[in-house]
Design goal:
By secondary structure, this protein is of the alpha/beta class. The protein is built from 12 helices and 9 strands. Helix 1 links the parallel strand 1 and strand 2. One of its GO terms (biological process) is photosynthesis.
Length: 301
């Protein structure tokens, strides 16, 4: 099992990095795709068992070359450009087609929670179509539908704002419940699919241990830092101007519907350990941040 080669497409994203780390630590040989000329491969240079490879994922021939000697394909793609959903659709289909020609044994596809529902969120709904494409490919698959990643709470700009200004800013409503999932918990479940045949040919919704709102997250941050943190809601039109329609529509959907999933049965059935927001922030150093005179360095993250 541990001599198999895994190709992670989209290795520098939140889920992609978690996949690379968890698979390589478990003894698999991992090829991690990075965009050409961006220098992002340096992230994996000193990681044992990981080979960073520059691949233009919009180039069919480049994908074919990257797919050589691949046993397991992990797809963790977000589209870019003026139409991110269409871009994601094109890339993912080329990856699946190349995997079929290369006789890849297993595809692990990173979808999103509620991809199979009508959400009007373009990069959600395209994943629903791509799930069907993978299911019809004839390649054994495991489809994972994660909720929102809690990793974003440790982003540079969020941590800087909280530590320097005492303000947590987000476009998400203060009372919107979301099952934030740690990316490494997702990767651990993906790892399980490589040794548990029960997970082949199935789709799994995955979330954190419980729904939590920004009101509760502020309380956790305040307790860890030993001082009061306030909240600033970023206007949705600002999100749309800076990050595009797709991202703004996702936030609108969250604020209207929430994004929650009860993980109790899945957690018990597969003996999963799910990371809480409190533990995640503690592990990221938030518990000690207040003792460092609120100093901030990008090297800390």
């Amino acid at each position: 099992m541990y001599h198999k080669n895994i190709l992670v497409a989209g290795a520098t994203g939140t889920a992609g990095r978690a996949y690379v780390e968890v698979f390589s630590e478990s003894g698999y040989r991992v090829k991690a795709t990075v965009r050409p000329g961006k220098g992002k491969g340096r992230v994996f240079t000193n990681t044992k068992g990981v080979e960073p490879i520059e691949v233009d994922l919009r180039n069919k021939n480049a994908i074919e070359i990257a797919m050589r000697d691949t046993d397991i394909l992990v797809v963790s793609i977000l589209g870019r450009g003026e139409n991110p959903a269409a871009d994601e659709d094109t890339i993912t289909r080329m990856l699946v087609d190349a995997a079929k020609r290369a006789k890849v044994e297993h595809i692990i596809y990173t979808s999103v929670y509620r991809a199979n529902e009508k959400t009007n969120v373009p990069h959600f709904e395209v994943k629903g179509h791509l799930e069907k494409y993978i299911e019809s490919s004839g390649i054994p698959y495991t489809i994972l539908r994660p909720c929102t990643f809690m990793d974003a709470l440790n982003a540079d700009w969020i941590k800087e704002s909280v530590l320097q200004k005492g303000v947590l800013a987000s476009p998400t409503d203060l009372e919107t419940p979301i099952n934030y999932l740690f990316s490494k918990d997702l990767a651990q479940f993906a790892l399980l699919s490589l040794s548990n045949s029960e997970l082949i040919g199935k789709v799994f919704n995955l979330g954190g241990p419980e729904p939590i709102t920004y009101k509760e997250i502020i309380r956790v941050m305040s307790d860890l830092l030993g001082r009061k943190i306030t909240y600033h809601q970023i206007p949705i039109n600002q999100v749309e101007e800076q990050f595009g329609f797709d991202m703004a529509e996702m936030i609108r959907y969250f604020n209207k519907n929430g994004f929650t999933f009860d993980m109790t049965l899945t957690k018990e059935k597969y003996s999963l350990t799910l990371t809480t927001i409190n533990k995640f922030l503690k592990d990221c150093g938030w518990g000690t941040a207040s003792t460092e005179k609120n100093s901030f360095s990008r090297r800390e993250i």
